[in-house]
Each structure stands twice: as structure tokens, then as C-alpha cells.
Amino acid sequence: GYRERGSWAYGYYFGKPTRMASASTAMAIGMTCASMLLLQNGRSRLRGYRENVKEVKKYGAWPMQPDLKQQGTTRFPIASGRTSEMIRPPLNWKNYD
């Protein structure tokens, strides 16, 4: 849309010796950046890290919500792994024969 045309015009305007090649390269970089931002924004909204009231009203909340508790301080966080204990509980080594 407009961003691709804007990045193409930027590359054309500032790429004096090779205007068409610079314009096409700027458009490709702009489209790549836009697609990465779109993917990042969509994933963070669907996972609940950003405001997602519209999606919750439309589709409903997932019945199994992870625990959002602070692990340590924000300055020195504690690594808690990629999944919460609710989704993948810790192993019970007492029943291991």
C-alpha cells in the first residue's frame, strides 16, 4: 500500500546513481520490515501480551490461562522456561520406578 510506495519513493529520491535499483531495494526492505512488525503485533495480541479486548469479545478467552506471576524483580528476572507449570506440570519423581 502506501508504505511500499513511500519506501520506493524514498529509495528513488536518495539513490542518485542507480535510482531504480535503490528504489526496488528500499521497497523490499520496507515490505520485509512491515511484514515482521505485522507478525509480531498479531502474535502478541493473540497471545495476550498486548491489548486484545476485540479478539476476546469475538472468540472468547482460552479456558486454560497461564499464571502471570512475577518471577523475581524486573531488573534481575528469573528464567522460568517457555511453558508454565499449568500447561506442563513438573515431573513427579516419587512415582518413577
Short description:
By secondary structure, this protein is an all-alpha fold. Helix content is 51%, strand content 0%.
Would you mind describing this structure in some detail?
With 97 residues, the chain is mainly α. The protein has helices at residues 2-14, 19-47, 53-59. The protein has three helices and no strands. The chain starts with a helix and ends in a 38-residue tail after the last helix. 5% of the residues are buried.
List keywords for this structure.
mainly alpha; 3 helices
Return the structural class. mainly alpha
- List the uncertain runs: none
Question: What number is the mean pLDDT?
Answer: 76
Report the end-to-end length measured between terminal Cα atoms: 62 Å
Major sheet attributes? none
What is the overall shape? Answer: elongated
